[in-house]
From TrEMBL:
[3Fe-4S] cluster binds at C275, C278. [4Fe-4S] cluster 1 binds at C21, C135, C176. Its main location: other. One of its GO terms (biological process) is anaerobic respiration. It comes from the Bacteria. Keywords: 3Fe-4S, 4Fe-4S, Iron, Iron-sulfur, Metal-binding, Oxidoreductase, Signal. Its cofactor is [4Fe-4S] cluster. This is Hydrogenase expression protein HypE. Residues 213-290 form the Cytochrome-c3 hydrogenase C-terminal domain. One of its GO terms (cellular component) is membrane. Residues 21-188 form the NADH:ubiquinone oxidoreductase-like 20kDa subunit domain. Belongs to the [NiFe]/[NiFeSe] hydrogenase small subunit family. The keyword Iron applies.
Length: 345
């Protein structure tokens, strides 16, 4: 159903049969601003009515009952729908005599239907296509060097110039797993656009939401001031900057230090974990081994050392003077604050 500006009702078809651990679905269940329950329950003003089909969150018993809306969408009998993929896309051209990943069986032959079969039929018909998590967005762990499946991200499979039936590029929301509110906030924007209440979500050249991934981990990190002062952690128990013990935060596009993980609490550097760059297209290959200092970390920390030491010393002096009360705070019989009570014409 549609009205003049957009849709009154939208289906969300979520397939997690990519090469995946289902961690993105599990993560999204922790979202609170908004929660998936609020969206499906119609509690967000301006959104169309939403029907969600996700195997982890489905009330069905599975099997054909669960597959019914996916089969209907593939045959053009269910629209409009937003297609969400979780997990990386294997290369079925190199599967030998078998298959890498399947989702249901063919009703006539009983043979497994590969993920790629579904992608070929659902993605072009979808009003919008969303990649949930780094595996779906860029291939992730399953696509690292040495993998036998030839895994790739959704844009690598469909093409980076792909446009959905609604005229949108693929919307990538990376993370391993995806940060709950990052995904739900993006999904709500797409739904608002579908309802005619908002413009398309702004994306960067890697198809990530700009407002979420436009800054680096370092720019939002509580530990960043220690870096400026060349005060680096030597182990993971320290509250100081972790760049010398393996953190890639200064070059990674992610908002987790500012946003937290659940209810604004947590997030890798916030709880003493290094950033391993899980939102980046080059993850994990370009950022391994994880516990080693990044190549640029040694150089930058060496260059900033004299500046940081000087700044730290100067701030220490200023801090000492700022921790002294003004001299006119006393209990004597004379006013020494400089206040002049004389009347002036």
């Amino acid at each position: 159903m549609t009205h003049a500006e957009g849709f009154d009702e939208v289906h969300i078809l979520w397939i997690s049969e990519g090469m995946s651990c289902d961690g993105d679905t599990v993560s999204v269940t922790a979202a609170g601003q908004p929660s998936i329950e609020d969206v499906v329950g119609g509690l967000i003003p301006g959104l169309p009515k939403v029907h969600l089909y996700n195997k982890v969150l489905s009330p069905t018993l599975g099997g054909e009952e669960f597959l019914a809306p996916f089969r209907a969408a593939a045959s053009g009998e269910l629209e409009p729908f937003i297609f969400v993929l979780e997990g990386s896309v294997p290369n079925e051209k190199i599967n030998g005599d078998g298959f890498w990943s399947s989702f249901g069986n063919h009703p006539d032959t009983g043979e497994p239907l590969t993920l790629n079969w579904w992608l070929d039929r659902l993605a072009p018909k979808a009003w919008a296509v969303v990649a949930a998590g780094t595996c779906a967005a860029y291939g992730g762990i399953h696509a690292m060097a040495g993998n036998p499946t030839g895994c790739m991200g959704l844009a690598d499979y469909l093409g980076w110039d792909f446009r959905s039936a609604g005229g949108l590029p693929i919307v990538n929301v990376p993370g391993c797993p995806v940060q709950p509110e990052n995904f739900m906030e993006t999904l709500v924007w797409v739904l608002q656009h579908a309802a005619g209440e908002a413009p398309p979500p702004p994306l960067d050249d890697k198809l990530r939401p700009q407002w979420l991934f436009g800054k680096t981990v370092h720019e939002g990190c509580d530990r960043a001031a220690y870096y400026e002062q060349a005060d680096f952690a030597k182990d993971y128990n320290s509250p100081k900057c972790q760049v010398k013990v393996g953190c890639w935060g200064p070059v990674v596009n992610c908002d987790v230090p500012k946003r937290g993980w659940m209810g604004g609490v947590g997030g890798c550097p916030n709880v003493g974990g290094i950033c391993i760059a899980c939102t980046m297209p080059g993850f994990p290959d370009k950022f391994m081994p994880f516990m080693d200092a990044p190549p640029g970390g040694n150089l930058s920390s060496t260059l900033i050392r004299p500046y940081g030491a000087f700044i730290r010393r100067m701030r220490g002096i200023t801090n000492a003077t700022a921790n002294v009360e003004p001299k006119w705070h006393h209990n004597r019989e004379v006013l020494t604050s400089g206040y002049d009570p004389r009347w002036r014409p």
